[in-house]
Each structure stands twice: as C-alpha cells, then as structure tokens.
Amino acid sequence: MATLLKELPSFSTLLAAYASISAMAMLIRSILNEMVPEKMRKYIATKFTELVSIHFNSDFTFVIEDRWKAADNQIFRAAEVYLPTRVGPSSDSLLVGSNDPNDPTAPIKRSIPPDCTITDDFEGMRLKWSFSSIETKKYYVPNKRFFSLTCKKSDREKVEKKYFPYITKIAQDILNKHESLNINTYDQECSMWESAVFKHPATFETLAMEPELKQFIMDDLDAFVQRKEFFENVGRAWKRGYLLYGPPGTGKSSLVAAIANYMRYDIYDLQFQSVRNDADLRRILTSTSNRSILLIEDIDCSTNVSRDRAKPKEIVEEEEDDEPGPNRSAFDPGVTLSGLLNFIDGLWSSCGNERIIIFTTNHKDKLDPALLRPGRMDVHIYMGYCTPAGFRKLSTTYLGIKDDKLFGSIDDLLKSVEVTPAEVAQQLMISEEPKVALNGLIEFLNMKKNKVEENEAEEEEKSSKEKEAKKKKKTVERQNSMQAAETDTRCIYLT
C-alpha cells in the first residue's frame, strides 16, 4: 500500500496538469469560436447533449395538451377522468369539491390540481403523471393545460399501443356509469366550459303536450340513436337539429330538459354574449363532448345575423327597435351567420358524433331561411297554447286527478282563450284541494276571456272611430273642393 501511495502523483503535479488541461480547453474553445460558425457550434452542442442523454438518461416523457389541433384532445379528457381514480398514498395533493346544490351530502368529486404527481402501475410498468397549467398573457386566450407522462424509454411503444387505449376505455366506462347529468355554460373570462349538476324533473310523462306530438319526438330520438351506420353510409354527420318555437311559457325549456333526461345527454347551454368571433365560436363548439345537447335559446334575440335577410332593412330595424336594448347588441359583430352555419351543417359539423342541436325562439318568422332548412333544423316543433289534453296532463301531475265534472267547462274555455301551460300550472298550484284549484282556474280563464273581449271591443270601437274620422275628413275635403270650384266659377263668370 505504501509503495502504491508513493507512485501516486503529488497534489502540485495534479494541479499543474489540471491547469494545463484547462488552458488547452480554453485555447481550443477560442479557436472554435473564431473558426466555427455559431449555428454549427449550436448544432454540435445539441448532438452532444442528445448523445449524453441517450446513454445516461433512460426516461421518456409524453406531453398531452388539452387541445389537439382545432379540437379537444380526447386523451387529455380521458386522463382527467381516469387519474382521480388512481390517487394513492404516493400522491402529494388532490382537488376535491361538489357541484350538486340539491344534495350537500353527496359524495365529493375528485380532480387533479396543478403540479400534482400521480403514480400508476400497468403491466409491470411504473408510470408517473403530472399536471401543469400555464397562464397566458392575453386574457382571451385560455390557459395552457397539459399532462406529462414519464416512463422508461424501453416502454414507450407499449404505452402508446396499450396504455393509452386502456385509460380511454376506463374513462368512457366511468362516464357511462354516471347517474347524474351536467349542464355546461361557457365562461368567457376563463375561456372554458363550466359544469353544474343537472337535475330537472321534466320528463315526457309530465309534459303538457299532445300525446301524438310527444310520441313523435320520442320515436324520432330513438331513430336518431339507432342510425349511426345510416349517417355514415349517406355521408352525413351524426347529428340532429330541432327548432322549438312558440309563445313564451309554452314549455320549450321543459321539453329540452325532457329530451336530456330521456337520452341521458349532458347539455351545453351557449349564450352568444360570450362569443367574440367566428374563430372563438369554432373553438367553443368543438370543445363540446359527444352524446350531448347543444342548446341555443332565443336565437332570434341573441344575434342579428339570424334574422331573415330577405326582409327590407326598414322592417328589420323596426323589429329591432321593438326589442330590449341588451338583446339587440348581445352578439359580437365579428361573428357571422356563416360561422354559425358552418358548424351546424358545414365542414366543422363533422367534428363530433351523436349530437343534438336545439334552437328555441318566440318568433320563427324573424329567422333567416338559411337556418330553417333541413340539415340544420331537421324537426320544427310548435309549442302552442294549452289544449284540453295538455290541461288533463297538468291536472294529473299537480292535483292527482284524471277527471272531474268541471273539466268540461275548462275545456270550453281553453278552446276560446289563449293561455300557456305555465299559466295553467300556476293556477293549479294555488291549492292542493282539486275543487279549489279548478274553480280558481275557471275564474282565471273567465277573467282572461273577458279581458280579451274588452280588448276586442275597444279595438272595434277604435276602428269605428277611425273610420268615422276618415269619413268626416273626406266630407270636409269634398266640401272644400266644391267651394273652391264654385269660387273659381264665380270668378270666371265675373271676368
């Protein structure tokens, strides 16, 4: 050992060697800087770094952003659903909450917060997930969100071919088992959809509609779900458009809720006030999920581009002046009718499957014909005033009775008075005693009938007065004309 120690160079010798090597390295570096162009130096440095990484770093990272091209990244969505189920002792944080105001005791829901790390095992592989969210500088650009999945380089191909399809399938199974539905609204500030639990009690059984119409809608929905291959064979996007039109209070929103409950589809309620331009509209609509309902309510009030372009400009301006100011300017002028139609029935309509698009309006005559044609609004459903059949459904729902001797009087009044199902339901809710509620409804209908008759009498009297005034005006004009003619005759005679 002593002999070995004696053979080792001294510290001063090592220091001198180090100084010589450093000086030589600095000299070579200076020569390279002078002789080799900067781009070439960067290229050499990059290749050297890659070479070192290949031999000394065995990890590989997949980056999964929330958007892929112009649509939502389906792998990102699958990870959002799957990863909360894999939270274990090794996880350092977890986002929890509940968005069900109807049931405060409902089980909490899990989500992944930024900078959270989750470890998952799959077929002998140890996989490490992390979630990141980067805030953008522009307020109208959404935050950049992405997952990072780290694995061994030798497992890269296995992750792509087996693991990603696995988590996609598990996520879809989880979504299919969800008992509750969600209603989503678009948050312009955060540039993303926000959801809440949707628990509307409306069903086709409770709707105050004609039985034939309800059956027609259910049959149409059933046919839509079962005709996936038909849509593919004819080269059309798998979607269905409905237009619900009629006076306010006739049950348009209740029908939407009934369709959602019947189909078990989530609802995306789009308010055009939150849309800035066509590009923003495309991004918003392509971020909706499959098997969902896109709802655009009161489209005649939400946007000027939906109006009938065939009407004279003066008539359109007169109609706009009759509406409230906020509705008239709610739609961003940068959004065009073609931008909306392109998603409903254009090339962008193919970005998604099994979607139902529902428009509602109180004034169908104000809509542009381009919005009304088949392929955009395939089914037009008139939601009219309450009929005797609708009243019987309401009486069964609210009072628990299917017949009464007062029904005949109510039927006669409903045939002569325009009253909405909402107004009838409001009267039936006055009392739980059927006799009291029915008599109150009869009194309400008689009051409305008398008011209508009074208005008609006033209109008739007004019309008579206007006719009389016009008649008197013509008489006066005739007399003035005759006097003028007589004066002219006298002047001619004197001359």
TrEMBL record:
GO terms for biological process: response to stress. Residues 238-387 form the AAA+ ATPase domain. The keyword Nucleotide-binding applies. CDD domains: RecA-like_BCS1. Its cofactor is Mg(2+). Keywords: ATP-binding, Hydrolase, Magnesium, Nucleotide-binding. It catalyses: ATP + H2O = ADP + phosphate + H(+). Pfam families: AAA, AAA_assoc, AAA_lid_At3g28540. The keyword Membrane does not apply. PROSITE patterns: AAA (PS00674). GO terms for molecular function: ATP binding; ATP hydrolysis activity. Residues 310-329, 452-495 are annotated as: Disordered. SUPFAM superfamilies: P-loop containing nucleoside triphosphate hydrolases (SSF52540). Belongs to the AAA ATPase family. BCS1 subfamily. This is AAA+ ATPase domain-containing protein. The lineage of its organism: Eukaryota, Viridiplantae, Streptophyta, Embryophyta, Tracheophyta.
